[in-house]
Amino acid sequence: QSMTLKAADVHPAGYPNVVAVENMGKKLEAATNGRIKLQMFPGSVLGGEKEMIEQTQVGAINILRTSLGPIGPVVPEVNVFNMPFVFRDEAHMRAVIDGPIGQEMLDKITASPARLVGLGWMDGGSRSLYTKKPVRSPADLKGMKIRMMGNPLFVDTMNAMGGNGISMGYGEVFTAIQTGVVDGAENNPPTLYTAHHYQAGAKYYSQTNHLIIPEIFVMSKLTWDKLSKDDQALVKKFSREAQMEQRALWDKSVADYSAKLKAEGVEFIKIDNKPFYDATAPVRAKYGSQFADLIKRIEATK
Amino acid sequence: MDALVLLGSFVLLMAIGMPIAYCLGLASLIGAFWIDIPLDAVMIQLASGVNKFSLLAIPFFVLAGAIMAEGGMSRRLVAFAGVLVGFIRGGLSLVNILASTFFGAISGSSVADTASIGSVLIPEMERKGYPRSFATAVTVSGSVQAILIPPSHNAVLYSLAAGGSISIASLFVAGIVPGLLMGLTLAALCLIIAKRENYPKGEVIPLRQALKICADAMWGLMTMVIILGGILSGVFTANESASIAVVWAFFVTMFIYRDYRWRDLPKLVHRTVKTVTIVMILIGFAACFGYLMTLMQIPLKVTAFLTGLSDNKYVILALINVLLIILGTLMDMSPLILILTPILLPVVKLLGIDPVHFGMIMMVNLGIGLITPPVGTVLFVGSAVAKLPIGVVTRACAPFFAALFMVLLAVTYVPALSLWLPRLLGL
Amino acid sequence: MAPFFIRLCDRLYLACIWLAGTAIFLMSLIIPWGVFTRYVLGTGSQWPEPIAILLMMVFTFIGAAAAYRAGAHIAVTMLTDPLPAALRSAMAVLVNLLMVLICGFVAYYGTRLCMETWNQSISELSWLPVGVTYAALPIGGAATLVFVIERMIFGSQAARGIVRYEELNDTEKAA
Ligand code: NA
Ligand code: NA
C-alpha cells in the first residue's frame, strides 16, 4: 500500500533527531521504490509534544519523535530515566537503551493502551547547569533559583542539589534569566546556544550531567497496522539505523555548539559531580522505590 | 487545490453570515476531510489552541481594561487630559486624542476606548461648538492608539500566532514609539483643522483643582506601571502582570474611586463573558485552521510565491501592506492576526525583517482597518455612540485616514521607530 | 409567557454566564497567588498554572455558548444584508444547519477526546486527568447546540431581557 508518512518533531529542521528521521524516510522510499514516502513537520509546527502525541494516537501524525514526558503516564517504567544520576554517563545510557532494557521498554509502549508502537531511542544529551554565577558545589547553588522542567521530580532534584527549583515555560526562560526571575537553568550545550540563554547572562556552564534522559520515536498504532509484515520489518530495521545515526550527529552537534559557546565567552566548568550525586540520593529513594529492580539492572549494565 | 478547498470554504461560509470563529472551525473540518486527516486531530487543535498558559494574558488584559472603563476611569482620564491640553485652540479635540493615549495605557481595546471616551467627549465637544461628525472622527481614529500603546492584547495574540517565539515584553515596548507618533500625528492634524475652522479654546484649570484631577487619574494610570514595570523589571511574567492588573483595577474601582456599585458587578460579568469569550474561541478555531494550513504547506507556498515576485524587502512590505489594508477593510483584527501571521511571518523573516517590527506594521495596518468601512468594529461603535450614519462618520474621518496612513508608512519603512526602544532596553 | 424550552434555555444561558464568570474570577486570583507563593513564601507552586488553564477552558467554551445566544460573535453580514428577505432567511436557515454541524462535531469529538484522555494525567498535577481539562469542550459544544436548536425553532433570542441584562440595567441608570 502506498502512503506518505507524516513525521513530526518539536526540534527545528537540521536538528540531529530530525535529520535522522528524514534519512530513515529516504531509505524507506528507496527500499519500497517510492511506495512509502516521508514528509517531515519539524519545529513544533503541528503543536507541542502533548498535542503531537495525541495526534499520533489518532493517526494524524504517523511518526513522532518525542521526549519521554508524555509517555510516562501510560508506561510508568520510562520514568526511571528521569531519575537524577541514574546513568553514570552518556556511554552508560547508550548501552542501556541499545540493550535488553531499551527493547523491553519499547515493547511495553507497544503493548500499552497508548496506541503507539515504540520504534527506537534517541540521545537527548545530558543536562547540566548554566548560571549567572559559577557553580562548583552544592553550596554554590544555595539561594539560586534554577528553572527546571515542570515535573515535581525535577524541581525536587534541584532542591536536593542545593538550589531552588522553579518550573516555568521554556519560552519565558530567556527573559526570566535576563531580569533575574531565575539565576539560571539547565540543559545541553546545543540548546543553551540555540535558545541564546547565554546572551541573557547565563555564562557559566557547570558540567553536573545530573539528568541524562534519552528520547524516543514512535509510530501510530493505526499506521503500523496498515503496513504489511515486510514493510513493518523495513521500518524496524531503518529505525535501529536511525537510532545509531542520530547519535553520531548528536555528538558532532554537541562538539560544534560547545565550541561556539566557548567562542561566545561561555565558561565550561568541569566539576566533580559526586557531591551532587550524594545529595540527590533521597530523590532517587522517593521517586525510584517502585523501580528498585530496574535501577539495579541499569546500574549493572556495562 | 488543497488551499482552495480550505480557504474557499472559509470565505464562502463567512459570506453567508456564519460567525467567523465557527467558519474557521467548519472550514478546518472540510479541509481535514479533504486531505484525509482524522477529525479527532482537528479536535485536539481546538482544545490545545486554548489550553495554553501564554493565552491567559489576553482575558486578563481585556478584563483589566473593562473594569477601568466601567468604573469611570475614562471620565478621569478626560479630565486629566483637559488639564494638560484643554486650554489650546481646538483643545477638546486634543483632549480626546490624549485621553485615548492614556486609555491605551490601561487597555488594549479600541472598541472600549471609543465607547467610553466617546460617550463622555462627543456630547461635550458638540456642546462647545465642534461638529458632531468631527468629534466622532477624532474619537475613533484616536482610539487606534490603544492597540500600539502597551498593554495590547493584540500584541499578545500576534506573539501567540507566531508560535510564542516573540517576547511579549519586546512587542509591548516596541509599541510605545509608534503609538506616541500616532498620537502626535493625529494631534497635529487636529490643531491644523481647529485653526482653519476656528474651533474654541478651553479654559486653564486652577492649580488646586488640576492637582486633584491628576492625583485622581494617577491611580488608574498606575495600571500601566504595574504591567510594563512588572514585566521589564522581571518581577512578573506577562501573564502575572496582567492578572495583577485585574486585581489592581478592581481594587481602584471599588475601594478608591468607589463610583461603581457592588450590585452592578453582575453587569460586568455578563459583559466580560460576551466580549472576551468570542476572542478566545476564535483563537481556538484559528488554531485548527492554522494546523490545516501547515499540513497543506500553505505558508511555504505563499512564501515561495511572494519571494518569487520580488526579492526587495521594501516592495514585499508594500505588497503585504496593500493586502492587509484590503483584508482589514473587510475583516476584524483578531482573526486576521491569527490567520495571516503564520502565513506572512516566514516571508518577512526570510527577507531579514525583524518579527517585532513586522508585528508593529500589522498592528498599525489592521488598527486602521478597525475604523474603515465596510467592516470596522470601532467605526460602528463610534457611529452608534454619536448616533450618526456610518457614511457621515467615514467622510469626516477622511483626513484622519490620511494621517494614519502616513504613520503606517513611517512604521513600515523606518524600523527604528519600532526597534529602537526595545533594543535600548536590551529586549 | 415564553415557551417552556425558551425558559429552559434562559436557565442554561445564566448557568453558562455564571460558570464562565466564576472561572475568570478564580483565574484572576490564582495567578497572583502563584506570584505570592513565589516571592513571599519562597516556594513556586505547581498547581496555579494547570488550574488556571483548566478554568480558561471553562471560561472560553462555556462562555462562548452564552455569547452565541446573545449574538455577540463576530460575523460578516455585509453580503447578506442587501439580499431580499426571503433569500436572507434561507441563508439564516443554512447558517443554522451549519452551526448544528460544527457544534455537533465539538460535542461528539470533544466527548471522545475526554474519554480517550481520561486515564492520562498531566505532569504537574498527577491527580488531575487530562480528560477533565478538556471537559469544557463537549459541554460548551452541547450548550451551543441547544441554543442553535432554540434559534432554529423560535428565532434569535438575543433581544430577550435576560440576554440583554447589562444593557437594560445601563439604561435604567441613565434614565
Ligand atoms: Na494599550
Ligand atoms: Na475595516
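qc> Chain B touches chain C through 61 residues (CB under 8 Å).
qc> done
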